Amino acid sequence: LLRAPQILILDEPTASLSERETAILFQTLRALKARGVAIIYITHRMREIWEISTWRLSMERMLPEPEMSWR
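Predicted structure:
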């Protein structure tokens, strides 16, 4: 973040975070997005994906939103 990245890749970033720390992370990600940073967010926690993403890709089905259905 010190070098003003254009793309940020995060792999399971909330695995060891508390709820409060996760909220701070999401606030930071929203600010980065507002500055035009592309964020690739890898997680198995679907709630997080729906909360912070504007576009989703499921590796299980390899289909972009909106064709994807979650069951």
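Summary: Residues 67-71 have pLDDT under 50 and may be disordered.
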